[in-house]
Amino acid sequence: MRTTTAWQSTGTGASLQRATIERRELRADDLAVRVDFCGVCHSDLHALNGMVGKPVAGLVPGHEFTGTVTAIGPAVTGFAPGDRVAVGTIVDSCGRCPMCAIGQENFCHERAVSTYGGVDRVDGTMTLGGYSREYVLREAFTYRLPAGLDPAAAAPLMCAGVTMWEPMRSAGVGAGTRVAVAGLGGLGHLGVKLAAALGAEVTVLSRTPGKAADARALGAADVVITTDDTQLKAAAGRFDLILDTIAAPHDFSPLIALLGFEGTLSVLGVPLEAPVRIMDLVFGRKKLTSSGVGGRKHTAELLAFAAEHDITADVERVPSAQVDEALARLAKGDVRYRFVLDLSDLD
């Protein structure tokens, strides 16, 4: 087995410890990646606190990272050592089901293998994520990082970015579409950038006016303060699509009221408990939906679009040794807008 260094959990709520972990020897279609930068996702917090069903003890988080290929298996044809690459939230799927056939491996009927806390389809071991200096995975789930994209700022595209991208593509967002983004955090700020680049009229929905200047700088045309009843009333029926990135439990009714005829509320922050009043959807034939990261088709499409429009995340880059501090600040919402770990200090 190969070995590398990682930040690993010893139990729920515990600090991550620097540890030596094992990586598999390369299979024929595998490549090894030196992880250079890994984003810190809110779902990492959920996983470390035992909220999403992943094993906590021994967990190595991290599912949005960029790096450099260091070795390839004999059947790999698309990459060579030295290539810059990006890796997202899934690293394998069955490849046969209807979802895999249309490039939606994230919805694989046999359950996609997540980048960490998943079960390897070949040997049954638990996958260990990108808070580490090396990762080994199949070529098919590795993406070439476009030239010109900063590797640290591009890392969050692989989770936060594609989480925003898929529902926008599904809704046909483009010129003339009225899109609102609820919550201007790691997900939301990329939602604003991407929707604006697609030609939509973008509004940020925020509880306080403190982020209004940031919202406009990111590409929003307007900001609606959701604690202001006058502003909410004026915005009623205004939007075609609302991208709800709020992770905490909250009432959907005020957001649904902002949708126009056949408008869609896409819940992407994944609040774990969320009651829905169906009658809110009835008037105006409104739709409530969600999405989970992205498959290979849309992930590759997103990277190409981001390169064309020079879109990356706004990040705070920190040495990986500060991971506990980053997670604590993330839990308080104290980041604009995504922490990215620099893994070079694991050498």
Query: Tell me about the biggest sheet?
Result: 7 strands, mixed
Instruction: Look up the CATH topology of the largest domain.
Output: Quinone Oxidoreductase, Chain A, domain 1
Structural class: alpha/beta
Ends apart, CA distance between termini = 18 Å
- Rg, rounded, reads 20 Å
Number of helices: 11
Q: How much beta, percentage-wise?
A: 25-35%
How helix-rich are the residues, as a percent range?
10-25%
Shape: globular
Number of self-contained structural domains: 2
| H/E series | EEEHEEEHEEEHHEHEHEHEHEHEHEHE
Quantity of strands, as a count = 17
The CATH H-level superfamily of the largest domain is Medium-chain alcohol dehydrogenases, catalytic domain
In CATH, what is the class of the largest domain? Alpha Beta
Mean pLDDT across residues: 96
**CATH architecture annotation of the largest domain:** Alpha-Beta Complex
Characterize this entry briefly:
The chain is α/β, with parallel strands linked by helices. About 25% of the residues lie in helices and about 25% in strands.
Summarize the structure in words.
By secondary structure, the chain is an alpha/beta fold. The chain folds into 2 domains: 2-159 and 294-346, Quinone Oxidoreductase, Chain A, domain 1 (Alpha-Beta Complex), CATH 3.90.180.10; 161-290, NAD(P)-binding Rossmann-like Domain (Rossmann fold), CATH 3.40.50. The chain has helices at residues 42-48, 98-101, 151-154, 160-170, 186-197, 212-218, 229-234, 253-256, 279-282, 296-309, 323-331; strands at 2-8, 17-23, 30-40, 65-72, 84-87, 90-92, 113-114, 134-138, 143-144, 178-182, 201-206, 222-225, 239-244, 259-267, 287-290, 315-319, 338-342. Strands 3, 4, 5, 8, 9, 16 and 17 form a 7-stranded mixed β-sheet that branches. It has a 6-stranded parallel β-sheet with strand order 12-11-10-13-14-15. Helix 4 packs across helix 5 (186-197). The two termini are 18 Å apart. The mean pLDDT is 96.
